[in-house]
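Late entry, written up from scratch paper. The run itself happened at the end of the previous shift, but nothing got recorded in the book at the time, so transcribing now.
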Amino acid sequence: MKHRVQIPLRHFFATPPTPCPYLPNRLERKVVTLLAGDDPCRLHEALSQAGFRRSQDLAYRPACDDCNACVPVRIPVARFVPGRSLRRVLARNADVTATELPAEARREHYTLFRRYLAARHAGGGMADMDFADYRAMIEDSPVDTHLVEFRRTDLSLFGVCLTDRMGDGLSLVYSFFDPDLEAFSPGSYIVLWHAERARQLDQDYVYLGYWIGESRKMAYKTRFQPLEALGADGWRPLPVTPQTTAIRPDADATALGTLPNFITSKL
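Output as recorded:
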């Protein structure tokens, strides 16, 4: 029997078509709903299990005409084992520590956010965000959310991630990092940290948003095998094919038991 996610009855709205930020010559549409009511956290969790993502107080999911390229993906924490290349990422970043902070906008974070956008997404829809826009992204949330701040031993800012806590896992809403440290694979390290943090919290999943097979921006997500994808039959393992190995997962993912103990503080 297929498991069906029960979503409370509510209003959903479709956005007008706009240029797709990931695939050329395509238009994107989204279906959105307000995270409101007596229990927005429960609603958020149900929608996340159905492939929705959160942006401030809205939940959305792609609903594009004649395109289903956006595939919701998540890491099943109990079965996740970092392969050789991901173990190298851990080793290169052994000096990085993480601190869990309240979801409050900070000027230092915003400065890094602007540098990250200029280097990685200069033409994207977020490129013109001022501090007020950034504050809204961080602070306007009706659900259980927080920031994870990553620093190196010299206290320089390595990266930041806006993360939602749910009953079954952690959801990475948005992460950004020092673009000068790209050789250290900071994006992958942030995902690895969340996989271990979910394990520590006895949670089942890390939700990574959407994977798009034709987009190189999304290719890194296939490094985290086994990866589950949401389709017509529910959440199933994402098949390992040439399309899903744009960044090839390691073939010798020897079991490690758990990831290394990350140093984490909580304020």
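Residues 245-263 have pLDDT under 50 and may be disordered.
(Scratch paper discarded after transcription.)
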